[in-house]
Amino acid sequence: MSEVTAPVAPVVAIENLSKHVGEDVRLRGWLYNKRSSAKLHFLEVRDGTGIVQAVVFKGDVGDEAFARGDKLTQETSLVVTGTVKEHGKRKGEYELGVKSFEVIGAPSQEYPISPKDHGTDFLMDNRHLWLRSKRQHAIMRVRHTIVKAVRDFFDQDGFTLLDAPIFTPNACEGTSTLFETDYHGEPAYLTQSGQLYMEAGAAAFGKVYCFGPTFRAEKSKTRRHLAEFWMVEPEVAFLTLEEDMNLAERFLAYVVGRVLETRQEELKVLERDTSNLEKVIPPFPRITYERAIEILHENGHPEAKFGDDLGADEETVISNQFDRPVIVSHYPAEMKAFYFKRDASRPELTLNMDVLAPEGYGEIIGGGIREESLETLVKAIEAHKLSMDAFQWYLDLRRYGSFPHGGFGLGIERTVAWTCGLPHVRETIPFPRMLNRLAP
Ligand code: 4AD
Ligand code: MG
């Protein structure tokens, strides 16, 4: 004869509670916050998918359990069993009428991050715990959606994913931001960009992209530079600069559209004004670098001149003229990487394009058309004092069926900062690596 046991309520994720109104369920999670009165404990429980209010009524659970509830501290892990109900006051929200709860792990000491305000350094030192908080949770979910949308866009558009290596002998983006390491006795660099490898891929597959971490030893502290950041880099054979711009704007509109479609709740937590994101629809305005210099002249920067790099302040002035991302093309060749193709009619300019995000977020995409002449490229490698040996494989792409091609790189963290409306990229990646920060 089998023993008769009470049925155990099924485990349900908080984000799915709406499908279980009136049913008994079990939640497994952590105590986020608690308020109590003589007869009630309001436990805010989080499980990674959401936060729900679990109401412990003395009359329902009994004196002993109610007293145990008194002692629960923040970040205790627990299992709560109860009945799902519509929230008494907030429409579209749910709560749990608790029948019983079990502590799994009580904190051995007080949780360091309380709901009060903490300084950024303190929070950064506790990043491994900070990720549990509501705001960080919302940011990481938006990041997840952006990463997924990036992959979906290229996968649906005929691109083949081709992973680029992390260790490389090549300085793609100049020698001043290289992380050098020892590779079995040989010097190697952590990759600054997968682009050179994608150029090889474009000759093999036509349309390729890579998506991975990239590294730059940025020596200055800014709100948009990380030492390790994620970049997606499409590269396409037989592409023109105009087609490159078309691809960039279609891609960006797709990614932002997906965030708007699926992450309204997170954007609300972040108090993001989404009206600006709703305007991210092609066509984007397109201007040249020379026009950008004129805009600076017209807007309080008379000192700006041809050849100046556009820094964060200048980019903000330029992007403030437009209500959606703006594409800036044809920068002076002297300030650009060795691989750019020059404009045939104005050889002092490159066939490049940057996309500047609105609201002062600055450059989120950089790309352009690559030099295809072997001879010109050899001269450029010499002029940039790069290792000719290390670039022999790259020059092979010009020796064997050279072809016009181009692409771009989008920085994920700057894109997350912009879509979430964050002042600094340090909150856009789970564990940021910056000047002066390697831990946790
Ligand atoms: O403009 P960048 O340097 O372009 C390249 O690396 C090209 N090789 C890409 C290509 O054409 N395949 O970098 C591209 C983007 C920037 O627009 C920015 O969004 C991001 O990468 N980025 C950074 N993000 C965070 N921290 C840093 N230090 C970054 N440096 C660049
Ligand atoms: Mg750039």
Number of strands: 18
The biggest sheet amounts to: 8 strands, mixed
Tell me the number of helical segments per DSSP (H or I, 4 or more residues long): 14
Arrangement of strands in the largest sheet: 6-10-11-18-17-16-13-12
Query: What is the structural class?
Result: alpha+beta
Measured as a percent range, the helix fraction is 25-40%
The radius of gyration is: 27 Å
Bound molecules: 4-amino-1,4-dioxobutan-2-aminium adenosine-5'-monophosphate, magnesium ion
Q: What is the end-to-end distance? A: 55 Å
Strand content: 25-35%
Shape: elongated
List the defining traits of the structure above.
14 helices, elongated, binds 4-amino-1,4-dioxobutan-2-aminium adenosine-5'-monophosphate, binds magnesium ion, alpha+beta, five-stranded mixed β-barrel, 440 residues, eight-stranded mixed beta sheet
Overview of the structural elements:
This protein has 440 residues and is an alpha+beta fold. It contains 14 helices and 18 strands. It has helices spanning 58-61, 63-70, 120-125, 127-130, 134-156, 195-205, 241-262, 264-269, 275-278, 289-298, 312-319, 374-383, 392-399, 412-420, and strands at residues 24-36, 40-46, 51-57, 77-86, 94-105, 160-161, 167-168, 180-183, 186-190, 207-215, 228-237, 286-288, 326-329, 342-343, 346-350, 352-357, 362-369, 405-411. The strands form 4 sheets. The protein has an 8-stranded mixed sheet. It has a 5-stranded mixed β-barrel with strand order 1-2-3-5-4. β2 (40-46) and β3 (51-57) form a beta hairpin. α5 packs across α7 (241-262) and α5 (134-156) crosses α14 (412-420). The longest helix has 23 residues, at 134-156. The chain is elongated, with a radius of gyration of 27 Å. The model has no long low-confidence stretch (mean pLDDT 96). Bound molecules: 4-amino-1,4-dioxobutan-2-aminium adenosine-5'-monophosphate and magnesium ion. Magnesium ion is lined by residues 354, 363, 366.
